[in-house]
Each structure stands twice: as structure tokens, then as C-alpha cells.
Amino acid sequence: MTGGIGNAELTLGDIPSIKESWQHIEPFALTFDGYGYWGSIEKCAEVASRPPGTLTQLRTWLFFEARRWHHLGKQPDTVAMKRIKAVLFAIREKVRSGDLR
């Protein structure tokens, strides 16, 4: 995993465009350590399984997706990429509006 970026330090320039490929999105997803933040893989999975609302929940979901696809040994399919890009858009909107919780 790459180095972490806290929500307060996150800038729009850090967030890949929704036009980017998975190769550019995955490293960003790993700038948030969901396992460390939530204290366990199980808690991270629980948070990632609920509809995200906060920036932290959105980043948890994206982190968990990155780990899931890594463990599957393949890249996200078309349906997954649509969800991933929707979450990226939501992350961008949270940062743009200053809603960093």
C-alpha cells in the first residue's frame, strides 16, 4: 500500500478523475488504510458493506474494493468500475464542499 493521506490533507488534485483507469485509481484508494482506521479487517468490511455517507465511509468503501480486487487477482469489471467512479465523484464532491468527516 502507498502512503496515507488523511481527510484533512486530501486535495482535489489527489483524487483521480472519473475518466482515469483502475491503474490510476487503485493507488489513490490505498492512500486510506481502512484496516488501520477501523482497527480490523472485519470492522472495515462491515463499514464498507453499508451505503457510504461520509468522506471516511466513502474512502473505506474504495479501499475495501481495492483490496478485494487485489485478492481476486484481477481488475474490476465494468459494473464495478461504474460504482467505483460514482464513489470517486462523491469523494471529490465531499472534498470540494469541505465536508471532510
Structural commentary:
The protein has 5 helices and no strands. With 101 residues, it is mainly alpha-helical. It has one domain. The longest helix has 20 residues, at 78-97.
Low-confidence stretches: none
Q: Share of helix among residues?
A: 55-70%
Number of spatially distinct domains = 1
User: Any idea what the radius of gyration is?
Assistant: 12 Å
Determine the number of helices (DSSP H or I, runs of at least 4 residues). 5
Task: Please summarize the sheet with the most strands.
Answer: none
Give the N-to-C terminal Cα separation. 22 Å
Which percent band covers the strand fraction? under 5%
What are the secondary-structure elements, in order, as H or E? HHHHH
Number of strands: 0
Mean pLDDT: 95
Gross morphology: globular
Class per helix and strand makeup: mainly alpha
Secondary structure elements and pairings:
Elements: H1 22-29, H2 34-38, H3 41-48, H4 55-72, H5 78-97
Helix pairs in contact: 3-4, 4-5
Q: How would you briefly describe this protein structure?
A:
The protein has 101 residues and is an all-alpha fold. It has helices at residues 22-29, 34-38, 41-48, 55-72, 78-97. It has one domain (7-97).
Keywords:
single chain; 101 residues; mainly alpha; 5 helices; globular
